[in-house]
Every structure is written in C-alpha cells, then in structure tokens.
Amino acid sequence: MTRPAWRVLVADDQDLVREGFAMILERAGAQVVGQARDGVEAVELAREHRPDVVLMDVRMPRLDGIGATRAVVSEAPGTRVLVLTTFDLDEYVVDAVRAGASGFMLKDARPGDLVHAVDVVARGESMVAPALARRLLERFATHPPGPSPGAAVWDRVSERERAVAVEVARGRSNQEIAAELFLSEATVKTYVSRLFTKLDLGDRVQLVVLAYETGLISVGGADSP
Fold first, then answer.
1. pLDDT by residue (tens digit) across 206-223?
2. Does the pLDDT value for residue 42 go beyond 80?
3. How far apart are CA 75 and CA 50, in angstroms?
4. What are the residues facing 8 on neighbouring strands?
5. What is the C-alpha to C-alpha distance for residues 11 and 32, in angstroms, rounded to an integer?
6. What is the pLDDT of residues 15-39, one digit of tens each?
7. Residue 219 half-sphere exposure, CB side, CA atoms within 13 Å?
8. Is the pLDDT of residue 98 over 90?
9. What domains can you pick out in the chain, each with its CATH number?
10. Which candidate, 29, 115, 192, 211, has a CA 20 to 30 Å from the CA of 123?
11. Is pTM beyond 0.70 here?
12. If we measure between CA atoms, which residue out of 222, 221, 194, 196 comes closest to residue 207?
C-alpha cells in the first residue's frame, strides 16, 4: 500500500539535524512544507501551512518545544505534534504530552522508525517509542512520584481494561497486546477506546503517562495491586 504524502514541518535549532530529518522524510515520500529554527518560527509556520505533523525538538531558542507544542495545538487545529527527545531529556516528555503532543520519539531513532512514527501520528494515532517508554518507567521507579490520590482512577476500569492499560504503558502495539492477552485486535481497540472514555484521556500517549504517574506498572513489569 502506498504511503500518503503527509505534509510535515521540521523544527530543530541545529541545521544539520533539521535538514537531515527533512531529507529522510522527503525520501520516504513526505512533503516537508517548512523548516523552523526555533519554537516561535515553528508556531508561525504551522499556523501558515497547517501541516499534518510537526516534528518538534524539545530544546530550542526563543520558545522551547513544550511551549511551541502548546501553541501549535491551540492555533493550528488538525496539526499533530511528534516530539523528539534524548535520554537526558526524559523529564520533558510528560510536559510535552500535557501540552498536547501526540507522540514522542528518541532523537537518535533509525530513519525507518522516524518515518513510521510520523505516519502513525499523521493517521490520527499516538506514538510511544518502546525504548523511551522503558526509560520513562525506569525514571519513575528510581524517582517515584510518591503516594498519589490519582491511583484511585484505576478503580473506574475493569480488570481486563487494566491489563490492557499495562500493556499499552509498556509500549506495545494493539497486535502485540492481542497476542499477549489472547484477544483479537478489534477487542483490544475496544478496550483502549473504553479506557480513553472512562479515564477522560485524549489518546494513547496520555494513557501511558497516567500509568507512570499513578504507579500502575513497575520496572519488573508487574502491575500495581
């Protein structure tokens, strides 16, 4: 199946990095409608071109990626943001999701993974890089947020929905979850949709962050009691 020619805006303050991402995406068939050197320019270009996806670096001058994400989501309806981060910037990921990002990837991702992530986000889904999901989980385990009254939120869901949430938080796809829990992919999609509704979440990424913040899963992979 031919991949749609998604319209993408690339925002990164490093010229070589930005142009490299643009080249990778163009070779994959995407249309790069603009390149931004800072957060302010990213917002302006997103407002002007209304791309399908903004590939957004976290650390940029004038306006960082978090503020730029928040502005793009507000001022360019229909445009989704895929945030790029590095292992030493994990603390920004939760803020990016709260700002409205639809996904996050590691900045050193392979070209094919980057193209796949843009494709997933452009289609209206959410992207959580498994490696980054694991890294975030380790960070929460090492520096736990402490007792959170938010943990009671899981009382709203069924045992099976909770199991699905655990697998989503581990960065697994619907296909992988279906195999792990002996369900059909359609059933997994139904459970994920119910989780969004019951927990008042916008997408898969927000579900992952909620699982981390409330201690639903631990580094050993076991869900919390």
1. 787 788 778 887 544 445
2. yes
3. 10
4. 32, 53
5. 11
6. 999 999 999 999 999 999 999 999 9
7. 9
8. no
9. 7-132 (3.40.50.2300), 140-213 (1.10.10.10)
10. 211
11. yes
12. 196
Q: Which long-range contacts (CB under 8 A, 24 or more apart) does 28-33 make?
A: 28/3, 28/111, 28/115, 29/3, 29/5, 30/5, 30/6, 30/115, 30/118, 31/5, 31/6, 31/7, 32/8, 33/7, 33/8, 33/9
For residue 225, pLDDT beyond 50 = no
Phi, psi of 8 (to 5 degrees): -125, 140
218 contacts 141 by C-beta, under 8 angstroms = yes
Question: DSSP letters of the chain?
Answer: -PPP--EEEEE-S-HHHHHHHHHHHHHTT-EEEEEESSHHHHHHHHHHH--SEEEEES--SSS-HHHHHHHHHHHSTT-EEEEEE-GGGTHHHHHHHHHT-SEEEETT--HHHHHHHHHHHHTT--EE-HHHHHHHHHHHHHS-----GGGGGGGGS-HHHHHHHHHHHTT--HHHHHHHHT--HHHHHHHHHHHHHHHT-SSHHHHHHHHHHTT-B-TTSPBP-
User: For residue 128, what are the β-bridge partners?
Assistant: 104
Distance CA(213)–CA(39), nearest Å, equals 27
